[in-house]
Every structure is written in C-alpha cells, then in structure tokens.
Design a protein that fits this description.
single chain, 4 strands
Amino acid sequence: MPGSTEQFDPATQQWTENKDGAIRHVPLLGVTGLLASATRSTKEPDGARRLLAWLASGEQSLKLASSARATPFRDSQTDGGTSWRWPGVPESVSREYALALEAASRQPLWLDALRIPGRNEYLAALDQAVLAALEGQTPAEALAKATADWQSITDKHGRDAQRRAYRQSLGIAP
C-alpha cells in the first residue's frame, strides 16, 4: 500500500517498522484512472479549457474520484477517507487508503508511470501478478511471471525502441 511505514526485509523474511517512522516508498503517479484532455485541433479551445477546469474543480473532481475506476488525485479529495468511498468498499478501508495516499503525496520523490509503447501491457502483467499473489501464489512466483511477461513485451516492441521512447519521455533524448 502506498505510504507504508513498514518494510519487508528479505534477509530475515520479516516485516519491520521503520525506525524513524519515515515512509520508504516512492509514489508512482499516473497509473490509471480517468483522464480528460483537449487536443490542439479542437474547434472550441476556450470551451474545452472551461470544461477541463470544471471537471478538475473540487466538487466535480471529488465525484470523479469516487467512481470505481478512479482514485483521489489531490489531498483535498481524501479528507481522511470520509468524503469519498469506492462503491462496495468498507469505510474503514477507504479511510486507510486515503491516509496512505495523503502520506505518499507528501513525499519529496515520486515516479511517473512509464510513457512507452506497450504501457498498458506492462501494467496488465503487473495486475495479473498482484492478483496471482492475492489468490495464493507466492509473491516470488508472481513477480517471476511478471518479469518474464515484461521481458516478452519489451522484446515485442524492441529493446532499443523502448529505450529511446523512455529516454524521450524523460526529455533526455531527441
């Protein structure tokens, strides 16, 4: 869960509390959810900007973040998990998730989701690994399968092409 104050030590095979209470995770941003955008070719750029601003407003964005296909994307939406809740999820779970999101959003470091060809394929393989682990497969087995899947996806799209796309997404390549 994002923002955990515990960490798993593979050497001892135990979960331990961080000694200073610091969060040792780098939040991953932009994984999934709802997204609105306007293209340069829109015939009504002012109307498009107004619509996007309205969708991102506090009231509307809270409604979007409360859908089963989205997650809160700003601190004001989490409110300790009391102002939003996913359908069918207990309030206590929503609250715990909201608090973890709030803690993660305060971290000085973050990692943006990959912007390379096959991004959704990589994420789907990771989703499958998480589901497999939740259904009883060992985390090591699930991650080994995800690793093999990611290698296959990378080979399919071409390693050099993926490297170039990733470097370009970071702004360090032409």
